[in-house]
Amino acid sequence: MPFAKGHGTGNDFVIVPDTEGRLSLKPEDVALLCDRRRGIGGDGLLRVVPAESGSEAEWFMDYHNADGSIAEMCGNGLRVFVRYLLDTGLADGDVIPVDTRAGLKTAVLDGENIRVDMGPAEFGEASSASLDHYTWAGQSVSMGNPHLVCQLSESDDLQHLDLHYQPVFDAEVFPEGVNVEFVTGHYPHVAMRVHERGVGETLSCGTGVAAVAAVALNRHDADAKEGHVTVDVPGGRLEVDITPETVFLSGPAVVVAEGTTTLA
Ligand SMILES: N[C@@H](CCC[C@H](N)C(=O)O)C(=O)O
């Protein structure tokens, strides 16, 4: 089976081209391919499959978390997916539509970066997350997938959080699990770390960055409908533009290897 490997700000993915839509990957196949010791290694897997007929997009991003579970959306995954389509000639031009479980998304080339229209950030109820005997208030945000954005206080040290553990969250608010972001700083420049559902701590999370940026703007000015936020993640920096209609995420995305595997 052919594969490629890519990442966006250190959020890394195994890419599996399945251009005729014939492969069926079981959750255990995905977990093995994403295993960093026994497999290729990645925070998730992107299967490249044809979009349904009638779609504006030619390709569907079949995204899986490293544990084999499925998620609705992946912002960095989408940027890497588009980079792969362009590198391999599966897509061309400056504007590339892609189908996802969270609907049609559009990516554009932005110099060296890939910029994606993530759709609007939808705020839900206030909730909280606990870790190591501390509890932080959080804002739930949907970017197609669920997020809980927790602002740390000035005295909290982002670097010292132990994200080897899943933060405790309210399962009544998040019955399908949640990605939890911890944030320091204020609009227009914040830093975050994330514990991703189905993965663990990752170096970056595009949907999480978009959620964090929307919360930062809202905390700055609850009436503001647009703004630009710079978000630092352990794997680099992403830029977010918020408009009244949508959220744009921009940053680097690269394919670093190609090969074949007999794992699945
Ligand atoms: N890394 C991703 C998010 C991947 C999905 C997430 N783990 C979930 O289960 O919702 C991103 O870049 O957005």
From TrEMBL:
Pathway assigned to this chain's UniProt record: Amino-acid biosynthesis; L-lysine biosynthesis via DAP pathway; DL-2,6-diaminopimelate from LL-2,6-diaminopimelate: step 1/1
Active site: 74, 205
Broad EC category: isomerase
Location of the protein in the cell: Cytoplasm
Enzyme Commission number: 5.1.1.7
Any Pfam family matching the protein: DAP_epimerase
The protein's name in its UniProt record: Diaminopimelate epimerase
Species of origin: Salininema proteolyticum
Primary gene name: dapF
